[in-house]
């Protein structure tokens, strides 16, 4: 198994760092899948992470100037690694002004993704920085757990309000309740609701617009709301990690089942699934 | 003892206290000093009287040593200087007075709008420990602007405890250090290296790998960087202590850290030459105390000033220099006298002369009040 990549464009390096930082805010460990054309950061929905799952897709050509991969075998030309994105994020942050950054799969005290860069200095010889990020190789028999999730059979699909606004609302609601209800309709309305013994608060958003995926809108009454009750911390964690407003931000709701958040940026896409929790008492 | 600081100096004073707070739990006043509980790290900031708007050593000068060693709990002092920005905004002057009869240090902040904040802190009279560091025996010396060192350590996370500095004639490198047997699979290993050309002064007599505590050093580097001072690093082979040193016209600061001995296995702590009992090394990160700690009160040899500041060595060696006074610049005289005053026994016959010289200088300070305005621009 071999992997080596090189980033030389400072903007690409910056974007890549930002993506990795966003991922690091969502989860402590995740799986990095490397294929000849793409990189994927995957989190599979296990009980340990509260059932949330994540799929982040990047096209390697958007970031890397050089990219060579030799996967597990010629038929399965990909590499699956478990990594702590926080380590990657830290390593990338320190080399932001490098002339070139190399990423290699190496074997040091354990398998590592080595980030190596030469930092410019006033003298002729630069400073060399190396970070060895430890990784765990995921065997092929477990790869099925990290496949691309399919689009759920949603009841409503709607564009999200500006993420910063949404984050502000959710931040304040978090102080009052552990659970939040997201409901939306096919005519561009979304409500965020919390309800406790003492207080209930609802924030209404109108005219958000709905994505043009045909399916759901035909048979459904556009005013009917689909809703899901989720752990508010999961939603807050998702919103906190976003550093830039994406080109498109959407939400699919499967009534009482799951909230599927989709963010599309120029150079990457991020999907995040938050399962609904059962109404208590 | 009574001294007054102008606001920018209060900030510098506060920053020094911040740096020292990373090292130990106690602070010795008059030459700010702190030692960590394992006696493996020591830091000292000495401010020349010119740093202060007003500096005097007390009204009754007997033959006996009037230098009081005040030990204060760091957690009493640090909060007073915690928020440097609010000090900058509100404080006009700071007055520090030591009252031996009531065992109290009075720190008074004279603030804007007629507000005065007075803090009375109880102190213990306790001999302060001084680290003995034989600077002239150091084979390796590096000197560079503080910025370079900050740029080196920025690659390591704030939680990083220990790092290893490797020096060869061609390369200087810094890497993080994790103990064997830890769950090292989870740790990220970072190494950065640079060329000797980046240093102002590069002298490598002995190729070495020294491992020391980074956490204790960060505060000191932050202080040095904020004052744009070059930092000198003096060290030798593994096991010998490493000394970091900065100086300018008004102050001098030193950090001495113990380093891990060359062998990997943990040999029992080499007990320092010190009157007090050493706290036993309990945590895995404890580095055996290789630094020799000496009681400073009577007759012990003083801190040997490191190699770069030759004028200190000059004023310490022959007695004639002290008496003449004219040859060496005033501030260096005073700083070295601050050190000297702590070891009265050695120079018993000159004891009286020293104390009277100290009194003389502080008088001169008042006359030259206008000049001390310079200390404001740090």
**Element string of chain A (H = helix, E = strand):** EHEEEEEHEEEEHEEEHEHEEE
Q: What is the radius of gyration of chain B computed over CA atoms, rounded to a whole number of angstroms?
A: 21 Å
Structural class of chain A: alpha+beta
Beta-strand content estimate of chain A:
35-45%
How many helical elements of chain A?
5
Count the DSSP helices of chain B. 10
Low-confidence spans of chain B: 59-66, 264-378
CATH topology tier name of the largest domain in chain A: Proliferating Cell Nuclear Antigen
Spatial strand sequence of the major β-sheet of chain A: 5-1-7-8-9-6-2-3-4-17-16-15-10
Largest sheet of chain B: 7 strands, antiparallel
The backbone outline of chain B, from C-alpha atoms, is elongated
CATH architecture group name of the largest domain in chain A = Box
Radius of gyration of chain A: 21 Å
Widest sheet: strand ordering of chain B: 3-4-20-19-18-12-16
What percent of residues of chain A adopt helix (DSSP H or I)? 10-25%
Main location (chain A): cytoplasm
Subcellular location (chain A): Cytoplasm, Cytosol; Nucleus
Protein name (chain A): Checkpoint protein
Family (chain A): Belongs to the HUS1 family.
Structure in words:
The complex is a heterodimer of chains A (281) and B (378). Chain A has 281 residues and is of the alpha+beta class. Chain A has two domains: 2-145, Proliferating Cell Nuclear Antigen, CATH 3.70.10; 156-258, Proliferating Cell Nuclear Antigen. Chain A contains five helices and 17 strands. In chain A, the strands form two sheets. Chain A has a 13-stranded antiparallel sheet with strand order 5-1-7-8-9-6-2-3-4-17-16-15-10. In chain A, helix 1 packs antiparallel against helix 2, helix 1 (10-26) runs antiparallel to helix 5 and helix 3 packs antiparallel against helix 5. The longest helix of chain A is centred in the N-terminal third of the chain and has 17 residues, at 10-26. Chain A is elongated and about 65 Å long. The model of chain A has no long low-confidence stretch (mean pLDDT 89). By secondary structure, chain B is of the alpha+beta class. Chain B is built from ten helices and 21 strands. Chain B has helices at 7-21, 74-77, 84-90, 146-153, 215-226, 310-316, 319-324, 330-340, 351-367, 369-372; strands at 2-6, 26-29, 32-35, 41-47, 54-56, 70-73, 91-99, 104-111, 116-122, 124-125, 129-132, 140-145, 162-167, 172-176, 189-194, 201-204, 208-213, 230-235, 242-247, 251-257, 292-295. In chain B, the strands form five sheets. A seven-stranded antiparallel sheet of chain B has the order 3-4-20-19-18-12-16. The longest helix of chain B has 17 residues, at 351-367. Chain B is elongated and about 60 Å long. The relative contact order of chain B is 0.17. Chain A binds chain B through residues 84, 87, 90-91, 94, 108-110, 112, 121-125, 127-134, and chain B through 151, 154-155, 157, 184-195, 197-198. Strand 9 of chain A pairs antiparallel with strand 15 (189-194) of chain B, so a sheet runs across the interface.
